[in-house]
Write a structure and sequence with these properties.
Blueprint (H helix, E strand, L loop, with lengths): L8 E8 L4 E10 L7 E11 L1 H4 L7 H19 L12 E7 L3 H18 L3 E5 H6 L23 E6 L4 E6 L5 E6 L5 H11 L6 H10 L26 H13 L5 H26 L4 E5 L6 H13 L3 E4 L10 H13 L14
Parallel strand pairs: 1-4, 4-5, 6-9, 9-10
Antiparallel strand pairs: 1-2, 2-3, 6-7, 7-8
Helix pairs in contact: 2-3, 5-6, 5-7, 5-8, 6-8, 7-8, 8-9
The structure holds 5'-O-[(R)-(carboxyoxy)(hydroxy)phosphoryl]adenosine and zinc ion (ZN).
Length: about 350
């Protein structure tokens, strides 16, 4: 395989298949670690398998793999509008190598390597969590559209990555290096949302369903259930959501006439209290200038609002990607691939389900 040749403007094909989204993107990347990279999304396609996994109440790894293998060539054709010559002009292919479901990851890696061979393009492994982490650098039509000019205002930064598989707090000194401050000791927060939704007999994935119920609560609504806030006061930066989920289960079992809306609101409030409190404490302990929020659960309105409000109150910048770049996508993978080129970081071209950050 050819090695990557650096150009001041690079065209990168991103491929993401770590879970139940098959996604491809063509991204133009430029800039460096000092000034901040700039990304322009030329084309992007995402195909969600949610409907296929819904009857099982969660993602079935081998079913995901089969769907990725089936969809990748169809999506590539769509991405390129059948103009495969476009692939001659790309500089590299970036593909997710982990963390994620290994059979699903292999589908993307094999596809990327075959394309790389056919079009003589280098293939770069990308870390899915770094994809989420760097999503704040992606173009954003709604807020903070000019991160590049604010790069001096960002670091040190505290990053909270919240997804279906992870809940991690990081401290970033710059774009190149970071330290893991803490993570969940049991369930990821997205997983807790999905499990609570199942208890409430809501469809998979549960996060958006719980949010829908919360949005229907009146403005004057006050939490009367008061679920526990696990580890909210501990000195570390770790999380735990399994006990909270169990409390919801017991509450529903013991209250035959419970209100789904009340439970959704109280559960969301408890989970978000812990996330907000610990993130803000880390920011204060390490004199952070900004808070970076990413991952699928960053789509949650209550979380975004509360965390950005707390950041503002404390004079910190708050960065979150546009909604579509919080959930799994290939634009963030192309971006993480470009960052790997800049950082001279190489991942093994091998699916690693447990790869961390
Ligand atoms: O990052 P992501 O798309 O996939 C993983 O890498 O896991 O995150 C998916 C997770 C699911 O658990 C889903 O329920 C949750 O993000 N999620 C939400 C919301 N939208 C998606 N959780 C809470 N509120 C939402 N609005
Ligand atoms: Zn993800």
């Amino acid at each position: 395989m050819d090695s990557v040749k650096f150009h001041s403007v690079m065209l990168i094909l991103g491929i993401e298949t770590s879970c139940d989204e098959t996604a491809l993107a063509l991204v133009q990347a430029s800039g460096n670690l000092k000034t901040g990279p700039k990304f322009e999304v030329l084309r992007e396609v995402v195909s969600s398998q949610i409907a296929i996994h819904r009857p099982f109440g969660g993602v079935v790894p081998n079913l995901a793999k089969r769907e990725h293998i089936k969809n990748l060539p169809i999506l590539l054709k769509k991405l390129l509008s059948s103009n495969f010559q476009l692939l001659d002009s790309i500089d590299a292919i970036a593909v997710t190598v982990g963390p994620g479901l290994e059979p699903a990851l292999w589908a993307g890696i094999t596809f990327a390597e075959e394309l790389g061979k056919k079009y003589k393009k280098p293939v770069i492994g990308a870390n899915h969590l770094e994809g989420h982490l760097y999503s704040f650098l992606l173009p954003n039509k709604t807020v903070n559209s000019n991160v590049k000019n604010q790069i001096s205002k960002i670091f040190p930064a505290v990053a909270l990555i919240v997804s279906g598989g992870h809940t991690v707090l990081l401290l970033l000194k710059n774009l190149k290096s970071w330290k893991r401050l803490g993570e969940t000791r049991d369930d990821a927060v997205g997983e807790a949302f999905d499990k609570v939704a199942r208890v409430l007999k809501l469809p998979y994935p549960g996060g958006p369903e719980i949010q829908k119920l919360v949005e229907k609560l009146p403005k004057s609504w006050k939490d009367k259930i008061n679920f526990p806030r696990p580890m909210i006061g501990t000195k570390d930066y770790d999380f735990s959501f399994s006990g909270l989920k169990t409390s919801v289960l017991y509450y529903v079992r013991d209250h035959k006439k419970y209100s789904k809306q009340e439970v959704a609101g109280s559960f969301s409030g408890a989970a978000i209290d812990v996330l907000t409190k610990k993130t803000m404490r880390a920011a204060s302990d390490f004199n952070a200038q900004s808070i970076l929020l990413s991952g699928g659960v960053a789509a949650n309105k209550m979380l975004r609002e509360r965390l950005s409000q707390r950041a503002n109150e404390n004079g910190l910048e708050f960065f979150v990607a546009e909604h579509k770049y919080n959930t799994d996508n290939a634009v963030m993978i192309a971006a993480a691939g470009y960052l790997n080129i800049l950082r001279k970081k190489k991942y093994k071209m091998k699916a690693d389900g447990m790869l961390n950050i």
